[in-house]
């Protein structure tokens, strides 16, 4: 029978293709074609933003129209393609009907108008459909015209291909600009730290290497030592898992990690270890740990040569390891540089292009990036205002009332972005400033209006309360600056008048602060390098330093001041040490004193720029003069231009930059604005800040300084127009050219259009779709088994992009679902939990969670966006249907889609997702019957698929055909027995398959109370699976010949599995199996009963009674057949308890009848054999072996009857009691017959001795011959009988198997012999024995005791009272013979032997002869040594006393004979 563990695994589903799609080729094939986006987080971080929420970070609440930047007359067409190539969902687009007017041409970057600014006649929205996509649609409907010239056609195709590639490159560069800005200055999202760490995936090459490593271990080619149990576990793991086609498919799909391989082995060996017997001192946990260590050693290839490992030598391994280590960092939080590098690889941006963009965009300047964000938000506000005026710019909503709500949502999203930007700390305390939100509060609607909108259309959650309509005005108290100064006094020169050993030192102080002093130094070496740290709030502080010489006089009150200096540092001053001339007293000798000082003044975070400027304004600085100005950032949206005087903390004058616009102006314009006819006194390079009704003119003496001021003010005002410096006739100055070098280099390489592009004019939904799709492709191709989950760095950038550029949450997830479904349909393994998150988000958005708001039920959505577009709703329904079809496919093919239950929990998540997909809306649960019907249908199809695949792929041993070919009759000439063998093998494979289902998939259908009935469906799946098998089984069994029993192994395989499964036990197939085989079992038992009865009848007729086994050949055959029949029926484990009891009772009764017949026939034969040798009573008689065989048959029947007639040791039917009584009677009869047959020999011996009795004529003759030593001494006869007894005992002991029966026989035989001897001697009590009789009997009595003692007869039975009487009589007779014949004569006749050969009889001396006989039987009062001593000296004592009699004469003899109780006799 084939080992079930060797069954083959079924292969993967056909039709699930390996996706052969290269990233770059797919992009070249479709120019500008959009592919499905995706959005993922970690299992512990819903959508990768905020744990525990479906709606993520701020981006989830930032819903803006995906078509907000379309043409003035229509919205942009949005592509919902699911794949990266030209197929898939790309054909499903959401095109908004265009207006009657024609759309202007679209370009990647904004066009430039005649004035150099952004042209408003064209839109900058990226195309939703590429020309290649449209051409593909056309090719499917219209025939393609023939090309007039193949060469011209190929050239045109090549040109079109190059144009598409160039367009795609430009698109990616523009997208990289937006992505890099998100990386440079994130203010909405953070990198998640609680995402599940992804394991390295196993590649196809690594799988082949693993198969070789485990095969090497099984062949013993590795140094890893293991026991047989571990070897078997590894062999099973290798055959069932590593070589499975399903595992190969999962590895190809990128869904299995090394941890999955380890978990499958661990789960497998845990069951094996738990089933092993316990070992003292070794716990099963220790065994399991040891096995896992050995598994890891095999998995890692411990002991392999470097040349045998994949990849070659050590250098190749080092390169691979270095590349792997670089990739491993992607699972961790990434730095900005790593994020830049990551998205360069994703978008295909070259390194030099990144460097050009980095420098031109000033990505390392937080001020520039914050200013860019403010400009973007201002542009979005203007776009919202434009939408309010022209409703055609909005997307189509499911409800007309949502248009107003949409505008409100856009404003709220912009407000939230402003709040997030405002929350970033500029300096301490700025985030809590009361001016933080003043810029965007005016965009909020009133509370009354918002409440009405919520009630009517159910939009957003409550927005922030409005503040006063007027803007708050800054006061001087709000401007707080804090500076840190570091002053280092290094050395002094010019001290010539002081003695060399004179002590000098310096002091330093900042206005209003403490005074510090340096160390003391000698005048010859006035060096200190002493640092003093100060903190001040004065933008123009004064640092005073003095040089002193210690007073020499004892009564001097003050040290002598040698010189002083006052420094006025600024943050822009030099930080390097400089020499300064000191101011000396008038009467000082040393006039030229110089001091070397390094003074550093740090710029606080909220001070953006400072310096001296000329200024004039209408409201402030009304006089043209030079002042010290500081640009202060109070908050992210509040800046102030302040002028300071020396030693003042508060600004002297200031103005707030809100609403101002800065730009360069000419000198003439400046004179005109100030109102002076002549040139202004001071300042060469002019710029101004203009606001409605106000303007301020500034001027700097240096061109570079003016440019720095304009850039700082440009970032502070947040204006969209970037000032361009005027060009002098001779060209730009070297300073400006140096500052703008990065911009010029970018313009040289064609980057200017990407840098200057206005983000508001792009459709970021399509751009996000592209970047998300490319990111997903990159993620699925990295070394991790991501299953579609993004890495922390990737999700961080995608979150930030959505939040910053207003990608709607539902669009984002719909892109993602389409993309995931596209890849799942082409064989990539995707986590269903990930799909569930996005689907739940979209379902909640489209349907909304109904909650009570007063008396009105309003839909609340996860991202706080209350508007739903037609595109979102239609696409959601389309994706929902695609997802339903996909889930049904996965459930139907769960064995190939989730091989061995991997990924862990994926099947359970799929079932949960199916219930969610079947829901009509977000709140109404789907009826359980509907879900059950869908799952039931899937599992019914799964049963058919699994069975057909198993039958079609299982190979027939030794042939190229499959089992299905043999069973279906496609192979002609297949004999029925061959079909039955194939059916048995197929049954083993089916059992293995369902056991794997129970082991790896049943948990997905259990445990969750919501799906408690799923387990019933899995049972139904198994029943349907077996129903297909039953069809083939019935067909094959119908072809079998009658009365053939080769099908019983099939029943045993199936029944052993079914009876152990609580769900399938007594199920439909189990009942069918029982009904099919019940008639065969009954027929088999009937035939076996008839066969056994015939074998008993014929066997005992021909029985030769030769010993075989535990009995004879017939009995051995009988008992074997009965035991085999009962074991076979018992091993069937018949499922019907009543029929099983009937079979059991019938078999027990059959055994009882058969054993009874066997015993009766054996007893009859025994009696016949006893009668055969009745006349032969010589001592040469040997007990026949046939009699011993008969005894063995009865004794074996006694042993077998308990097992064959009782039920588990209990005599339920009283059959064993009945047969046991018969066996006991028969055994006793046989024992008596054997004893009587053996006693007949002794009877013959003593009949010979009776001829020597006194008074008989024959006795006188024999006495004469005895004296003449003609007839022998009598010992020969005794020895012949002793030999007979010994031979008989050896025969019995060697032939009879039951030791207890032998001991009982010997006890009875010994007692019968002693009884016969005692009776014979009692008949001759009044006569003395003839020496011949005495010698013979004495020898027999002595040897009987010792021989039977050696055979195991107990002392109590040996030294019985009768034996003691016989022994005493024989000792007396021996003494008499010795007296009458003389000692020498008696010895010569053989009447005396060695002392040690005498019997062990105890002689007790008593005071009365009447008690002598009683005292012979008591031996318990003597110790063994005394007892042996007395027994061994009995004869010596008798002979000694007889010698004394002869020595004393007849008188003495008479005295002894007439003596009293002390006499020996």
Molecular structure report:
- Helix 3 (150-184) packs across helix 11 (351-361), helix 7 packs antiparallel against helix 8 and helix 34 (1137-1172) packs parallel to helix 36 (1215-1249).
- The two termini are 83 Å apart.
- The chain is elongated and about 190 Å long.
- With 1465 residues, it is α+β, with helices and mostly antiparallel strands.
- Strands 15-14-13-12-18-17-16 form a 7-stranded antiparallel β-sheet.
- The chain is built from 46 helices and 20 strands.
- A hairpin with a 2-residue loop joins strand 19 (849-853) and strand 20.
- Mean pLDDT is 76; it is low at 1-148, 306-316, 427-470, 850-858, 1007-1011 and 1391-1465.
Distance between the termini: 83 Å
Largest β-sheet summary: 7 strands, antiparallel
Read across the widest sheet, the strand sequence of neighbours is: 15-14-13-12-18-17-16
Q: Rg to the nearest angstrom?
A: 58 Å
- What is the global morphology? elongated
User: Could you report the average pLDDT, rounded to the nearest whole number?
Assistant: 76
Beta-strand portion reads 5-15%
Number of helices: 46
According to DSSP, the number of beta strands is: 20
* Overall helicity: 40-55%
Low-confidence stretches: 1-148, 306-316, 427-470, 850-858, 1007-1011, 1391-1465
Q: Given the helix and strand composition, which structural class is it?
A: alpha+beta
